[in-house]
Amino acid sequence: MGKVMSKADDAKSNVIRQGLDIRLEAQNDVREMRQTLKMLDQDSIDLILTKARSHYTWKDIPVTDAQIARLYDIVKIGSTSMNGSPGRFVFVRSREAKERIAKSLKPANVPKVMGAPLTVIVAYDLDFWKELTRLFPHEDRRYLYDGNEEYTLDTAYRNSTLQGGYMMIAGRAIGLDVGAMSGFSNKIIDDEFFAGTTLRSNFLINIGVADEAALFQRLPRLTFEEACSFA
Q: What is the reported pTM?
């Protein structure tokens, strides 16, 4: 006679079947998407990168709560190491909060922030790894970070930078303009916004509808031969 399955064995089998079903669903989602969308057209690529510009002056048009929510809904799907998602984002619209940012800025950057409808502080959480059992449930990888400050900082900083890049592209994709900024004191931002927390600032992004009248010609870029190689 065959062995009678215990309730525990039956439950384990159900979990395995559910896991396989979820994987198959995810694989089919990608296959279906590739059937309908092979690649972006050139106009779309122009919008997010090749004809997009960094902006520093802005029209008096607010960025709405719905646009901010949509930005994050796009950004959160972007890939990060082990899905750790260390990026944290402070959306700054009030003049009072902008003045707190202004304390950290180089003088030339003050009007760029004060005139922007929205300034995003792209930050990272040094305790991001504590959420890995939820965000990366396949295996408990928290041991890689627990007590390993250098590795934790490196991972958090690198991946929050990546997430900030996703936010810049997402902003352009939904019809907004962006201008990233690093000319500020991270220490002052951290003291103003993150004192007593495990969050640290990375860089700033101004977002809104730009005033194109302030643009100058596009600056040169390195050629493929200068920047790239094969191995």
A: 0.89
